[in-house]
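Materials and Methods. Structural model of L-asparagine transporter-like permease. The 500-residue sequence of L-asparagine transporter-like permease from Streptomyces eurocidicus was retrieved and submitted for structure prediction as follows.
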Amino acid sequence: MTSEQVADRTASAAAAQNGSGHGASEGYQRGLGNRQIQMIAIGGAIGTGLFLGAGKAISKAGPSLILAYALAGLVIFFIMRALGELLMYRPVSGSFSEYAREFLGPFFGYVTGWTYWLFWVVTGITEVTAAATYMQYWDKSIPQWVSALVFTVVLYLANLISVKLFGELEFWFSMVKVTAIIGMILIGIGVLTLGFSDAADTASVSNLWSHGGFFAGDDGITSMLMTLQIVMFAFLAVELVGVTAGEAKDPKKTLPKAINTVPWRIAVFYIGALIIILSVVPWTAFEAGKSPFVEAFARIGLPAGAGIVNFVVLTAALSSCNSGMYSTGRMLRDLALNGQGPKFFGQLTKSGLPLRGTTCSAVLMLAGVGINYQWPGEAFNYVVSFATISGMWAWIMILVAQIRYRRKADRGELPQSEFRAPGAPWTSYFALAFILMVIVLMGIDQDSRVSLYCAPLWGLIMGVSYLVLKRRNPAAFERKSTEHYAKLAADARAEAEHVV
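The predicted structure was written out as tokens:
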């Protein structure tokens, strides 16, 4: 360990002691290169929501789901550009809670940090459970709990070796998903243009409007709007690239590049894939609970399609669990350094990894998997449904923080970001309005209303615990001055530029 690292660790420990926030360096090692950051960004936008969840959305909205993904994708781009502006102002690992803490106050930073941590713990539980279920496709003799245990332990150990190994795992997990989608698109284009395969007789672009019209759902445009909650769920974790800010090599170049690829990623992997699939297979052939990719492969005449998609969704689930292991440890440490979480989680290993926070989260994931197997009832479904609303809470905090940051920067109180969000703050206002509309639609839809039931209970827990902790340690919850954060931002940018 270098003398600089020792000094950084000492500064971090002091910050945790007095609740003063992060020092110039958080003590992490910048082991994530451009190649890994790009794939983390891509992988965050492609999950089981596309490979499995799209079937239900197609059956509800028909081809108009393409428009839903386009609208949601535009909003996601606005969110990511708002995040990018904040990241270039102050590149820190606990980005969401840090920006909420700075621009909205200690309470919002506290709630955001713990909510995002819980989001990934719950997501990790569901994804490792799903991964164990997918293994049954090949060998039903393996108990699900054994697969879940093996997957959790392997990913946990990978996260403890080095941040570079985490990045490599995400790179290859994302590569599998990208290859599958591109392969499906190329095969579909071949069917449409060259006329090969069993689906050639019925495959046509006219399938996008010839089976009841483009807005072919039961209620037309309303059906399309009601799928927006499913669509937004599919995009959860796209913001994960922000958590990597404290460990990215040359974040000044890699993070903006990753964020600027959001439009073409959504255009190709979501809109492009759906256009091809719905052209090859009429939308009326899809139903909830079945993957549209499996149906498309079956219509084309590739019997191995089900196995291919099962392997892809297995990697998607493991990728999500891997991301959960990574992000939960960082969030717990951020809370610890700011005095808003147990100091126990503030320590790093010699290789710059938050061992204690990651271990705690992994144990909870395993416990959750056990609970799910033992009592797979409505109580667990309520907890799982919380993931959607908690993920959108992080997006709301990003947008509000960016709006307030831009105001201060325009007044000269804070330095301007080198990666300004185009059209802001109006694009951020639009994104906020869109998210609020989706939340209202969730309340209207009976299937997704359960997601909102958990929010008041979690809000009550956060409010009570905040008051208790604030009384015990008032200094940790004092609002810091603009000058304090301006100094931290300057130190963070200088440190990020020094370690390349």
